[in-house]
Amino acid sequence: MAGQTRYVIIGASAAGMAAAEAIRAIDKSGPVTVYSDESDPPYFRPLIPFLISGKKSAADMAMVGHGPYRGTGIDVRLKSKVAGIDARMRTVSLKSGEEVAFDRLLLATGSSPYVPPEIDGTGQEGVFTLRTLSDARSAAGRAEKSRRAIMLGGGILNLKASFALLERGLKVTLIVQSPQVLSQLMEPDDASLIRDALNKAGLEIETGVSARRILSGSNGVNGVLLDDGREIACEMVCIGKGVRPNAAFVDSENIRVDRGIVVDQFTASGAESIYAAGDVAVTVDPVTGGRIVTALWTNAVEMGRCAGFNMAGKPTAYGGTFGILNATQVAGVSFVSMGIVHTSGLDYETHVHESRGAYRKLVFSPDGERLLGVLLLGDISRAGLYRFVIREKMPVAKIKSQIINHALHYGHFIRT
Amino acid sequence: MTEPREIFVRLDRCMGCHSCELACAVAHSRSKSLYGAISEQPRPGHRVYVEAVRPDTPVPVLCRHCEDAPCMHACIAGAIGRNEEGAVITQADKCIGCWTCVMVCPYGVVGRQLEEHKAYRCDRCQGRETPACVQACPTKALVYRSVRDFSRDTRKTASKTMIVPQGG
Known about the structure:
heterodimer, A: 416 residues, FAD/NAD(P)-binding domain, Enolase-like, domain 1, five-stranded parallel β-sheet, B: 168 residues, alpha+beta, Alpha-Beta Plaits, 2 domains, two-stranded antiparallel ribbon, 6 helices, 8 strands, 19% strand
């Protein structure tokens, strides 16, 4: 079909599918083809712990036809791994040998779990990283035959997986190298409310230790040796130590890779007509000004949408995102963490307020004129207003007491 | 096709009586009656919020059903979609209570049903001719109109106030 723009997207998760939808919203007819190396049709990745708990089936997590993913004429090709791209010839070569020509290409290859090389025995049967539905299925299968699971890493993913396993009746021990759980999202003193709730919920937590070796026998994993010399018996191990961008396949002098793929504010790489978005892309944190890679669904969607608009000819700048932008609920405690929340030993103006069942920390610039970060535990209502204040770098003088008292509402923006 | 309508707020008319909040909660209760709603567990929540900057400046705030709805795109469970009338709807059965929508809503109008662990918001009273809050508002501070009609009315009112002092 002459004259039509051929869109090719590598990666069918948050960024890739959001881009496909955005393209389709503008260009109703140009062919959009999305390649996924997974065998499952696109799904909401953050939901995979529910497959382990048994609360949701894979079909319950499908993206296509749900939420904003309702565009037509988006061709998703599964089990298609990309071998390389030729930026000059504008072709993508697949592992199968197929060559695909494109007019606009989006690299949305996501990220992969980081497995620390210093831990021995991570290749044993019964050791999991939870990234894909396929990973979750394997873990669920192993959980059936397990009594105890050891989770390495104290981040959100591992906490969610821990609760999924607890719900299945396993005994679960979380091994956290940092002094406290969720250390990426809050400081140790800020996390005590959550820590108490986790303990009450029956999760066993060991902080300040790490795994040295994963032990195994004829049936795979049978224990973990910690760096303090202790051995804990278990039948399965989940590693949740963060992710790294999948950028190794990029081999083009025009596309700069620095941890992830470096793009400009219009999500374009250095090579003409090639864009990148999501976990694989390097973006900017408007709060710190630093270059960051994030691994958040919400960020990936926002960036993917921008890329899609740009690819379809509607210039759309991506304003970057906070390195920390998390909301969730664990062990009955809801929390939101965003912007700069690690303040120990630094010169920020911070306001902490603690009450029964709730905790909050507001972080202002040293001169007190701008809000930089917010941590809310328990009462997270209207959290989006704070995100807005941080992102827009609003002068806060007139609303500062409302922010500190967590009494800010939209009326304060339109009436004074 | 009739143009989709929206709930507009005329700030100058709001007296802060909170009738809209009450009507909203009743409309979203199981019993649909005030007396029934009071005794329901979990208690039905309202999705319009009459905030006050000072005691004499009430500001009703409710979901704007944004054209580029941040909550819908941010939702990690695919629970938020747009219906044919253009309203952004949270599907309770798909909601997992992760509160991402609460974190990204710039209006602060996504509520949390803690007992059921679900997010909720204005659904423009699907199935009703006029949303309950609009119907209940005694001063017509809340109106349910299409964008075109609402802006035409605003222009008319403005032109009247300009013409009158000129003796027109």
